[in-house]
Known about the structure:
The protein is mostly helical.
Amino acid sequence: MIFCISRLCERYGKETKGISSDFLEALALYDWPGNVRELFQTIEQAFARAIHAPTLFGIHLPQPFRVRMAHAGMQFREGHGDQVESGLAKQNILPWRELKAEVEKEYITRLLQEARGNIQTACALSGLSRARLYQLISRYDMSV
């Protein structure tokens, strides 16, 4: 797998990408009915989605992988939800999705302030595509 990612980085002139634990976990959860070619195609699809990101995350994988990850997370929560929630509450730690949403919203707010509402400038500053920026603005009910 690392060989495949290195080859893709060379082919597209990108720096070597990191691999997150959720990316590896998603690949491990998959049944792999095909051969190693299917693995390489999957990694190439994830690479294309993360072309500007320094690390490959599970979110970069094709939909069937993300669905399996979500399903596995739901099963874990059903079996261990009380323990996880009480443990997080004791430690004063937000669940990942809540924290991510807070950080994203704050980042987009500050980005738009810095760019004075100019979408093109905001895209240039952040490296986000116009479509992704509008998606985030819509998600957090912001106005430009």
